[in-house]
Design goal:
Rossmann fold; alpha/beta; two-stranded parallel ribbon; globular; 227 residues; 37% helix; eight-stranded mixed sheet; single chain
Length: 227
Amino acid sequence: MADPFRIVFILYPKLTQLDFTGPYEVLARMPGAEAIIASKEGGELVTEMGLTFANLRKLADIDRADMIMVPGGPGQTAAMLDLDFMAEVKRLGASAEYITSVCTGSLILAAAGLITGKRAGSHWAYRDLLERFGAIPDDARVVRDGNCITGGGVTAGIDIALSIVADLRGPDVAKMIQLSIEYAPAPPFNSGRPETAEPHTVAAVKQLFAGFAAARSKAIDEVTGHA
């Protein structure tokens, strides 16, 4: 019997929970998958909105991964500056068959040197920061370059995960999972991307995210040694 396909979800404090739980809902349903949830410390972890995840494994206790999945969120900046955390990302990603992320999780992959020279996606407000690490920003909702699959912000994680399932188990299995979770988005407003949202909405969200953008830019300066 073949070994299970080991997917390690790499978590950190103050992540955006849907960046993690959306892909988890899909990938944990994939036949033959072993989904492991881990963080640097293990145990409990508090998300951006105050939810607590418990019984996480320690990253250092995991010997290998067939796939790593890194979510984004406000805590991404601090995580990127945590040398011990980043060492575990690099270690597990170095031998993984797939390198994946959602939203600003791609900045962690980029800081770890795992997507240098590759096309990658991220939340639209921070996508251009990928260039600072030598990655190539791509505005697609799901971005694939070789064994690296990244994409847009938060809800894009479900699309990313379904694309991964289709690649590993075929489109029919992915379609069955999509139907099982009744994933048929029909939002009440056409404002899910900056290209379609009204200008005043885009401006308001940019203002809301301005502090995060500045903090991320400063952290990248520190990581890349240009501070």
